[in-house]
């Protein structure tokens, strides 16, 4: 009997990550559509041995003036919400615009607090615009107020912002989320596995929907959960983007 218990314990330990990350999971309005992917993310991350901090309906303050207590207290933040270009819906309290996240206050900017939040995932329609529609796809991330004074505002330490440049279907969202979580916990690159999960369970090559888009600091192209590039400074203005091409059969890239 003791040997059997020892074997079970060894199997469980081998299935856990080398270290645990803290994470947040935020659902938007329309819970019938936004809660299932968020719940899947939360449960899958817990199954992999990571430690939850937040699981809530999202509010603008979680990302801007109170973000030290919310997304900036986490390593990875996952939000599913209705969205549009450079904004997402935060329930009854309105929308969160990227232009509202800046570093003019100690709480603003993503990643500035304790160099914590590294990866933001927005399972939302249209949030991460690409060069196919916006020549200044990088603007709201490093110059949200349009002043021309690029200060690394939104990417004030953030490594990567993952989402979609088009509308995204509801039906594959749970499967895409589940696959992505499993694959990154098996050592995959966060960016590559995002596109692999969409390609496997979404419809980027057969529809105008489900075309992924990821903005990231150049140091972090090959981030994994256990290995990342050097931390970007708050004053940087360098960003790259990788996004599904028009046909959805591959990806294009650009740099700023």
Lay out the secondary structure:
Layout: H1 2-14, E1 22-27, H2 31-47, E2 51-57, E3 76-80, E4 83-84, E5 87-89, E6 95-97, E7 119-123, H3 139-142, E8 160-164, H4 173-185, H5 190-201, E9 212-216, E10 240-244, E11 251-255
Parallel strand pairs: 1-2, 1-3, 3-7, 7-8
Antiparallel strand pairs: 4-5, 5-6, 8-9, 9-10, 10-11
Structure description:
This protein is of the alpha/beta class and 256 residues long. 23% of the residues lie in helices and 20% in strands. It has 5 helices and 11 strands, in the order αβαββββββαβααβββ. The protein has helices at 2-14, 31-47, 139-142, 173-185, 190-201; strands at residues 22-27, 51-57, 76-80, 83-84, 87-89, 95-97, 119-123, 160-164, 212-216, 240-244, 251-255. The strands form 2 sheets. Strands 2-1-3-7-8-9-10-11 form an 8-stranded mixed β-sheet, covered by helices on one side. A 3-stranded antiparallel β-sheet has the order 4-5-6, with no helix packed on it. Strand 5 (87-89) and strand 6 (95-97) form a beta hairpin. The model is unreliable at 1-14 (pLDDT under 50).
What structural keywords apply?
disordered N terminus; 256 residues; globular; 5 helices; alpha/beta; three-stranded antiparallel sheet
Element order: H for helix, E for strand: HEHEEEEEEHEHHEEE
The shape, in one word, is: globular
How much beta, percentage-wise? 15-25%
The strand line-up of the biggest sheet is 2-1-3-7-8-9-10-11
Structural class: alpha/beta
- Distance from first to last alpha carbon: 61 Å
Largest sheet: 8 strands, mixed
Please report the total strand number as a whole number: 11
- How much helical structure, as a percent, in the residues? 10-25%
Number of helices: 5
Q: Residue-averaged pLDDT, rounded?
A: 86
Our Rg estimate from Cα atoms comes to: 18 Å
Low-confidence stretches: 1-14
């Amino acid at each position: 009997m003791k040997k059997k218990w020892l074997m079970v314990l060894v199997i469980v330990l081998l299935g856990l990550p080398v270290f645990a990350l803290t994470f947040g999971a935020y659902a938007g309005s329309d819970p019938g559509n936004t809660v299932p992917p968020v719940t899947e993310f939360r449960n899958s991350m817990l199954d992999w041995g990571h430690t939850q901090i937040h699981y809530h309906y999202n509010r603008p303050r979680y990302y801007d003036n109170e973000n030290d207590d919310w997304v900036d207290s986490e390593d990875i933040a996952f939000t599913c919400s209705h969205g549009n270009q450079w904004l997402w819906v935060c329930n009854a309290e309105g929308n969160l615009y990227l232009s509202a996240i800046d570093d003019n206050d100690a709480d603003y900017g993503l990643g500035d607090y304790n160099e914590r939040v590294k990866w933001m995932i927005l399972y939302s329609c249209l949030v991460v615009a690409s060069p196919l529609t916006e020549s200044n796809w990088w603007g709201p991330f490093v110059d949200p107020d349009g002043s021309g004074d690029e200060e690394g505002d939104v990417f004030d330490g953030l490594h990567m912002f993952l989402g979609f440049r088009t509308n995204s279907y509801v039906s594959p969202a749970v499967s895409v989320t589940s696959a992505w979580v499993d694959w990154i916990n098996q050592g995959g690159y966060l960016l590559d596995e995002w596109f692999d999960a969409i390609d496997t369970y979404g419809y980027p090559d057969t529809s105008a929907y489900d075309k992924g888009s990821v903005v990231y600091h150049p140091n972090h192209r090959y981030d994994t959960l256990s290995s990342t590039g050097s931390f970007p400074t708050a004053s940087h203005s360098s960003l790259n983007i990788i996004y599904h091409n028009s046909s959805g059969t591959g990806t294009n890239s650009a740099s700023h």
